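name: query_chain
kind: protein
chains: 1
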Amino acid sequence: MKKIAIVEIKGGFGNQIFQFAFANNIKKLGYKVYINNRFYNYKNKNTKNNTHRELILKEENFNFENVGDFLLSFYKLLIKLSSSNKTKWFFKIFDKLFVKLSDHNFKESELKHNFLYLDGYWQNIEYLNDNLDFIKKSLSNNKLLKKALANKLNSSDLLMIVRRGDYIEMQEDLNLKFYIDALNYFKKHNIETNLNIFTDDIEWVKSKKEFNIAKNLYGPEDSPDVVINLFAKMIKNNHFIISNSTFALVAAVLSENISSHILIADPWFRNSINNNLSKENWIKIPNVN
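structure:
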């Protein structure tokens, strides 16, 4: 029987890249993989648990197809039946038939089902590392990103991302001390930098004298074309203060070289389960209240 998997795409651009990389991993396991991007068809207003996002690059860029309505309806029926007390016995008997998995219950080594529905963020840096060539090739289908990836980096350019917005509601925003400590790392090691700040809270950044040294300050963007333009600027940096943003993390993974210094919040989140989002050579800056 042919093995078929559906991977749901959701969240911001950083999360989308993680999900496409994960989908490519599943493809390597012999599954025919379809993408479900219907999350972006809904009017997802800004709420505590659901920040409005746009699909930045379509699945065609990553050599995937969007799942059709018929197959998706069939999978939704399987999800309903496999979770019902009246019919889940059927799936226990035919345990290789179907399963819906998320980040919290996924183990690649135990994968044995013919039909998979995969709904998660899959924030594990190994998915980026294992699929780095795939990600670069897929992003290069966009002319602007292809040019940015091919450009020689300015060895002094330092990206720092300051994310607040929904993180404030989640109580996961970083305090000022984190950013000061991160910037002081470069001073302490006599590393010359040109600071480029990317943020969703320009007014807060402008209100802090510590950030006056920034060469450039870029504000929040949502529309696909502008996000791609912004990301093209991000991957031209050589050094990165990722903070706790997957958007910046993906840029750092793509641009890292032997001369790069990459700093990350430790822990990534103070109040949530933390995933594997750091490399051994990256510098960890304490994330405290």
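note: The two ends are 53 Å apart (CA to CA).
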